[in-house]
């Protein structure tokens, strides 16, 4: 890929894409909840994102939409990106129905990141049915994800290596047990601020098979806010040095 990187920044939003014969990566951000945002910014970001998708001519493999994704844009991306392997959506207003429609069209998806879903993320079995090759799944700050949803989601994700569910307050040991039963290849499990999960006893013994289990108290676990992530890098089993996210990425 060409080393030329186009960076476009206006006030509180930015679009970054790698410029090659065809675009294959697109990362588009607005800053949720900060001054300078608004409808005009969101509309501009959507236009820029669509332009990158169109330029890719079906070769897009990686897209991040933070702060502006809606139903129409999500389906627009899915309809034109059959090779997409990574999808990240955060702080956006879209329906579970549109996400399910998109997943049906993305059979090559290996990494899905959902942060702060606007409504109930009731995708359940759709993830396993339409994305059986998923290796990384992030469902962070998704308040409607509990044991029942996790049981359904993990039934068919046999290839999953990396699972993040921090700040999912409805998750309990029952859901964690389902993860361990359904995901034999799992290497990283993030349970930070899952306050109903108790890692003592039998569940703790089962977690010994996982290389990295995170269950610590962060200061700020919103990666899109620009603040520090957390003060304690200890995991349930060991201490990770350096950048925690780099360590977790290396485990994928």
From TrEMBL:
<protein>
    <submittedName>
        <fullName>RNI-like superfamily protein</fullName>
    </submittedName>
</protein>
<dbReference type="InterPro" id="IPR032675">
    <property type="entry name" value="LRR_dom_sf"/>
</dbReference>
<dbReference type="InterPro" id="IPR006553">
    <property type="entry name" value="Leu-rich_rpt_Cys-con_subtyp"/>
</dbReference>
